[in-house]
Every structure is written in C-alpha cells, then in structure tokens.
Amino acid sequence: MFSPxxxxxxxxxxNQYAEPEIDRITLQQQYQHVVVIPAFSELAAPLRRxxxxxxxxxxxxxxxxxxxxxxxxxxxxxxxxxxxIAKETGPGWGCYQRSDExxxxxxxxxxxxxxxxxxxxxxxxxKLGADLALKFILEEQIDSRIxxxxxxxxxxxxxxxxxxxxxxxxxxxxxxxxRLPDSANLKRGMLMYELRLQHFCAGLAWAGSxxxxxxxxxxxxxxxxxxxxxxxxxxxxxxxxxxxLNKLAKVGEVQSLEGTKITLSSRRxxxxxVGTGTGLRRLGTLNINTPYxxxxxNFHSLKSLLxxxxxxxxxxxxxxxxxxxxxAYFTSSDLPGxxxxxxxxxxxxSQLRRAIAEWFDGFQQLKMLHFLRDRYAADVSLQEVLLAPxxxxxxxYGPSQQRLKLIRALI
Length: 411
Fold this sequence. Notes:
Elements: H1 4-16, E1 33-39, H2 44-50, E2 58-65, H3 71-83, E3 85-90, E4 93-97, E5 103-109, H4 121-138, E6 146-149, E7 154-155, E8 171-173, E9 176-178, H5 184-207, E10 220-223, H6 224-229, H7 240-248, E11 254-256, E12 262-264, H8 276-283, H9 296-311, H10 324-332, H11 335-344, H12 349-359, H13 362-375, H14 382-385, H15 401-408
Parallel strand pairs: 1-2, 1-6, 2-5, 8-11, 9-12
Antiparallel strand pairs: 3-4, 4-5, 6-10, 7-12, 8-10
C-alpha cells in the first residue's frame, strides 16, 4: 500500500508524534474504510444517523470526549455500551457492534482523569481518532489508506467512500450543504452563513489561490502518508481543520470533490467559539443589510499580489506590480524582511517563487484579507456581495443554482 519512504514517514510519526494511548487499543477484525467522529454532548439518535448509510465493512472511530463532567456525554457513552454488543474492550476503549450498522470503536475521553484539555478541544479528539486510523491502516487492518473525518451533525451519503476511492491527492474536501431550518429568521441566517463560507472559498479560487478549499472538519478526507507527513491534527479547540488543510496543501493537492453532498445540521450551538452552530446562533438576529461579507475588491487586491509573486524575479519588484492596498499589506508584512534569507537559500528565481508561495499560505492570505478589511474596504452586505464575479454562476466552490435563487429571494 505504501512506498518504503511513506512507511518510514508513518512509522516515525507513530513513534514520535502520535497520542501514546493508541498503543493499547487493538483490533481483531479487518475493515475496508474508516471514518473518525468526535462527539461531545451529543444525543444518540441524531449521531447514529451520521453513519446510517455507510456499509458494514466500514469502521467508525467515535471519540466520545468532554473537557469536564458532562451528563449528556456520559449518557451517550452508556447508550452504546447498553445497546451494542461489545466485541473487544480495554481500559478507556471498546469495539462495539450492532446488526446493520458499521462497527464502532469508541475511545472514552469523558471521565475524570481523561477529560480533553479545554485548549486542545476538538483538535485533540480528532487527532486521537485519526492517529488510531493511521495505526490500523499501516497494520493493514483497514484496506483504504484514506482517513475520513466528519462531525456528529453530518449525514454522510451512501457513496461517501466511493468518492475518495481513487484519491491521489494529499486530502479531499467533500461538497456539502446545510439543512435549512423551518423558521424564516433561522433559514435566512443559515443561507447567509453558508454564503459567507462559499464566498470566501470562491473568492480565493477566483484570485488564483492554492488554498481555495472549504475548511470544515465534517468534510475532510486525508491520505494517511500525507497526514503523517504534516504531523496530524493540531491540538486546538477551534480551527484545527483549517490549519491541518493549510499544512496539507504544502505537501500535495487538496481536492474539492463535486459528488453527492454531505448534509450538515443547522442546529444552533455554543460548544465551540466559532463554527456553524455559533454562526447561526448569531445570525438569527442579523438583518440582511448588515455588513457580513469580505468586500469583493479585497480579493482583487489578493489576486494582484498573487500574480506579482508568481512573476517576480528576486522579490524586489513585487510592491511595484500590485495595486495600492496590496502594496500596503505587502510592505507591512514580514515578507520584505524574509526575502534576503529566502533568496540566499534558493538557487534561482523559480525556487524563490516557490518559497514565497509557501510562505504566503492560507493563513497569510486570511491575514491579508483582514488587513484590507480593517484599512481599505470594510465588509459588505448581502446585496453587495452578490455582485462578486465568482457568485454570478454556480461553481464547485460557491453556492448551487438552487441556493443562489433562495439567497437572491432574501433581498
């Protein structure tokens, strides 16, 4: 399955960077696919719908976690222990089965002494599950080399694994849509929030960014060797999905899939500082005239800078080739000071351009958009953002034709 070089990379990761507790968790059975789901304060019924369309040949690694005592999380754990048959168990883990469902490998991180640290949050929960998946893939107990990741509020389609069956990229992100609430206010909020995500991604693609992909933990599939190469999920309470994909985009392609969409919940939540649930909770009270979207002209400035970086000979000509806002950002960034060091490590201009492109990653591009928003073009309203050229027609990064119709009807 792996080349000798990739085997070495994976083994080194498992020896040095994987979570130590995975060593005591074993499997007796072999599976075709694996998907990792963190679960904190979830209800059993909606959670089980997440994998309801998946084949029995798959393994679901369920990391039931909490940062503190949480009765709903403990109730969830007890549900699976009571209603599923235990195949294998050990301290803090167990493999459970139930007819017509994939097997569950449950990692218990919701009891005193085993809580997930607040600052490491969902990032550590995802890392635990993905590290386990990596271990089983290397041991050939899972046939596919793809580590699928999702969330407890997602509904995975029946062809979920087939969409990544021939993956050659470092990672893939699935197409998705949010389930629309019945309430008119919340429906408007959900459409606006979803458009915010899609506008950002489509704007990056239009600007020519290498980091134009959605960064939602519920839609990510990662190649095992690439996962090891970038040292796994960051242990963060939020943004772990963004930073993982940011690293993966530097070692290979992050592919945006166009197959059957994953359906995401429109539930409101305050469990994490940012995210769909938190965003919807805020949007229920916002007016469509509220400035909520990056100004389209800021993506024009981003495109200007990306173009100049792709054509530069020695870096000194970048500021002269861009528009005024892009030049202001460039001169205020760390890059001018880094250029001499980058140039000294490069043998020619093409190597320097690659080094600059690696520095100007997804995080730096987000910083640029925030810089431009605060100093040049402030956020715009729904009506204004819909004038962006990348929102004039459907694309794999932006809203579908059906969604566009619903969004335009809000105005």
